[in-house]
Design goal:
Beta-Lactamase; 11 helices; single chain; five-stranded antiparallel β-sheet; 7 strands; alpha+beta
């Protein structure tokens, strides 16, 4: 993967990192990809989103308000949506580091590129995670994660159907339908066909086990999936109440399930997540 962060109008490179055997002059390439974007905006009133060129697949993201252009290229065997999702993560991290949290990149910036050097470490960290996610072992691990998440959701659905009063049950289902609708409308889900396979109904609850994670970025997928589960559990506890939730979790052997599978949960780095989710009053 090659990554450019550029000033959109001038084409000046703020940051470039290549994880491929990229033998081209990155400054010349920066000028080319900026010129292509400007040409399409000028002639077609529409910026480039993706293009296959020079044996690579190129993805463009713009941040118009602050005049930034984020571009990533990778080999054509990598799905375009995977590249886009990774570039979105990079863009978000860069904006948080230099615009939102610290406001380094602004109209008063003196042009010194040294302030961006620490971001290379962030790119290295992301790339290591993505490389790991492409391994067979990681796929196997992720299916284990899906299994654990599905089992916890099944337990919650049993609690709702067996123990919760009708008025609270209707309120919980209404809130969960809203959570599911917001999740389904999110850009990340709309751009990933597999995530559209996640379903929700009052009778069966949430079903996540049918998705195949081989077509998109596993790291980002886990983030979105965990957030969905966290929203569901926090909504349940908020309506039922903390003390009643603990009681119902115990009745349906949720804690027994966690303890019986503690070795697996530790290996998957899910033990702390689940204990905090089901024990801490938030």
């Amino acid at each position: 993967m090659n990554i450019w962060i550029l000033e959109k109008n001038s084409g000046r490179t703020l940051l470039f990192k290549s994880f491929l055997d990229f033998k081209k002059d990155e400054i010349l390439v920066s000028g080319l990809i900026t010129a292509l974007n400007q040409f399409t905006v000028s002639e077609f009133d529409d910026p480039i989103e993706s293009i296959d060129m020079g044996g690579l697949r190129w993805i463009y993201l713009q941040e118009l308000e602050i005049n930034l252009l984020f571009v990533a290229s990778d080999t054509k065997d990598i799905n375009a949506e995977i590249i886009r999702a990774r570039l979105e993560a990079i863009k978000k991290a860069f904006l948080e580091e230099y615009v939102i949290d610290h406001d380094f990149y602004n109209e008063d910036w003196d042009g010194n590129l040294d302030i961006f050097y620490p971001f290379y470490n962030i790119l290295e960290k992301y790339y290591q995670q993505w490389t790991q996610a492409e391994s067979v072992d990681f796929y196997a691990e992720f299916f284990d994660v899906l299994g654990v998440c599905q089992q916890t959701l099944n337990i919650i659905n049993r609690i709702i159907n067996k123990h919760v009063q009708e008025d609270q049950k209707e309120l919980i289902y209404k809130k969960m339908e809203q959570i599911f609708e917001e999740f389904s409308r999110s850009t990340y889900v709309l751009e990933n066909q597999e995530l559209k396979k996640i379903t929700f109904s009052k009778e069966l609850g949430f079903n996540i086990i049918g998705i195949n994670p081989q077509n998109f970025d596993l790291i980002l997928m886990k983030t979105h999936l965990f957030q969905l589960i966290q929203d569901i559990i926090q909504t349940f506890k908020g309506i039922i109440g903390y003390e009643s939730s603990l009681c119902y979790f115990g009745k349906e052997n949720l804690y027994k399930y966690i303890l019986n599978n503690i070795i697996l949960l530790k290996r998957l780095n899910l033990d702390v997540f689940l204990f905090e989710l089901f024990l801490i009053n938030t």
